[in-house]
Specification:
By secondary structure, this protein is mainly α. The N and C termini lie far apart (105 Å). The model has no long low-confidence stretch (mean pLDDT 86).
Length: 211
């Protein structure tokens, strides 16, 4: 009886180290899985940030070119105001396309900025931009059909040209050299190095909408 009891106790003592070893192995595996999942999650998040940063760069690149064209076109329209002709009408129609592109890219930047600073770049700013865009499109649409630009039309064209210049100036302060830099793209996704420039452009259209 005593021998049987001793045998059972010995068996239980042998099982304890085995159970402990199994527990430790499972714990290590669990920790490895947690680390792998965390690393994968962080990597996925960074990829999204890089993609967002690349979108921001592309919007600024497009704005840089479109605003330059819009400013040039509207300046030429102001110069042609005294002798309005078919060429001026065609230039007005082309300016509509440029204005639409400017609006699309700036609206996209506002949408991205809203997620970062909703108090400063929210729905109100988007609505003001839309109102400004509609106002300017109506002007250019009208000028594409009239035989002569009125004094009021000329004044509005001058204002639009000035606003395009102000917005172009803001875009010119964007650091385009950061394109392709992964860390820089992550910074952009966090709101660094571009939100203030969008606010400057938004300020230009606010002035336009209130005139």
């Amino acid at each position: 009886m005593t021998e049987q009891l001793n045998s059972m106790q010995g068996s239980e003592q042998k099982k304890k180290p085995i159970a402990l070893a199994v527990t430790l192995v499972l714990l290590v595996i669990s920790l490895i899985l947690v680390v792998m999942f965390s690393a994968k999650s962080i990597g996925y998040k960074q990829e999204l940030q890089v993609a967002t940063g690349e979108k921001i760069v592309e919007h600024f690149k497009q704005l840089d070119g479109k605003l330059a064209h819009l400013q040039t076109n509207t300046s030429q329209l102001v110069e042609r105001a005294g002798g309005w002709d078919e060429a001026a009408q065609l230039l007005s129609a082309h300016s509509q396309v440029m204005l639409q592109d400017v609006y699309d890219h700036l609206a996209a930047l506002l949408e991205l900025g809203k997620d970062i600073e909703p108090d400063k770049l929210g729905d109100a700013e988007a609505d003001k931009l839309a109102a400004w865009h509609e106002q300017q499109q109506q002007l250019l649409l009208q000028l594409a059909a009239v035989a002569q630009a009125s004094a009021s039309d000329q004044e509005q064209l001058q204002q639009l040209s000035q606003q395009a210049a102000e917005m172009k100036s803001a875009v010119s302060n964007f650091n385009f050299k950061m394109e392709g830099n992964r860390n820089a793209m992550i910074r952009l996704a966090a709101g660094f190095d571009w939100l203030e420039l969008v606010k400057q452009m938004e300020e230009a259209v606010k002035v336009a909408a209130s005139r």
